[in-house]
Amino acid sequence: MTAYGTTGELQSLWRRSIGQPLRILWRNPQAFVGLIILLIFALMASVGPEVVPLDMQAHYEERYAPVSLEHPLSTDYIGRDVLRMIIHGSRDVLAIGFIAGLITIAVGATIGLLAGLQGGMVDAILMLITSTVLTVPQFPVMLMLGALFTITDPFSFGLVLSVWAWGGLARAVRSQVFSLKEREFIEAARTLGLSTRHIIFKELMPNIMPYVAINFMTTMRMAIGASVALMFLGLVPLQATNWGMMLQLATGPSQALFVPRAIVYVISPMAAIVLFQLGAVLFANGLDEIFDPRLRS
Which of 40, 147, 160, 149 is nearest to 99 (CA)? Predict the structure, then answer.
């Protein structure tokens, strides 16, 4: 193989795998802005704790210090730098959302695919279980699980948050599969004697992946919101750098709400949560418009 041929293949691979998706995202402002916000948070969570040191020791002489170059987001009730805490806490927060989203998508998509493909008794049993999950309110279940089980790490927290979150996706994927089963390309695949595995991974999955990707972003966003709510209520005491714990400490034991100069400290973890949620919403809405031309203006 010549060097020219190798370069040409690499350029073609770049255009297909990176260049074309980037051009599509660039044409949709919502998706592009949302992606930039999410990439900033991802970079902060992956690289930030490695390059930004964190001192968790108390420095009471710097308690509620004003915003400055040394402390861009001021300090907390015992003098710790708020910006550094947010950077270090981002890893756990995003890990919780990612794990919850991944488990929810895996369970929901699998159940939806099985129900849609098998039909009959399998479909009836799986949809009965799904309907039961959808009937019970999610937040009380998460409150109960958070109180019953000791949650000490992001994985166990994400697992608890995903236990009752997959029902809507399972029902939606089932409907998509029922619709796709009647299409000509599925009938042609069956006529050609292609395996069920081929039909699932080569014919069905590419058509439902856009919907699954959008639901992953939605589930991740909701999981982060639920995790913050549980920590705010004091049911899941994780590290003090976690945004939910920061918010709980800022509005609870520290009584920073009643200290005028602590306003930046109180708002900072809330602002980080809201900004991530905004990025996830914009990216999901943008993907929805990209994959569904009827939503474009």
Answer: 160
What is d(CA 287, CA 210) in angstroms, rounded to the nearest whole number? Answer: 8
- For residues 159 and 99, is the Cβ–Cβ distance under 8 A? yes
What is d(CA 85, CA 53) in angstroms, rounded to the nearest whole number? Answer: 10
Most confident of 24-38, 163-177, 231-245, 272-286: 272-286
Distance (Å, rounded) from C-alpha 13 to C-alpha 291? 22
pLDDT in tens, 213-225: 888 888 898 888 8
276: left (phi over 0), alpha (psi -120 to 50) or beta: alpha
Dihedral of alpha carbons 131, 233, 157, 205, sign: positive
Summarised one tens digit per residue, pLDDT across range 120-144 is 899 899 999 998 888 887 777 777 7
| Number of continuous H segments (helices) and E segments (strands) in the chain | 13, 0
Angle between helices 138-148 and 154-162 (to 10 degrees): 140
**For residue 127, what are its two tokens?**
């949809």
Averaged pLDDT of the chain: 82
Using the structure block, give the residue that is written with the tokens 């493909």: 117
Residue pair 231/241 in contact (Cβ under 8 Å)? The answer is no
Note the residue count of the chain: 297
Instruction: State which H helix or E strand residue 125 sits in.
Output: helix 120-135
Rounded distance between C-alpha atoms, residue 225 and residue 230, angstroms? 9
Contact 252, 77 (CB under 8 A): no
**How far apart (Å, rounded) are the C-alpha atoms in residues 158 and 216?**
13
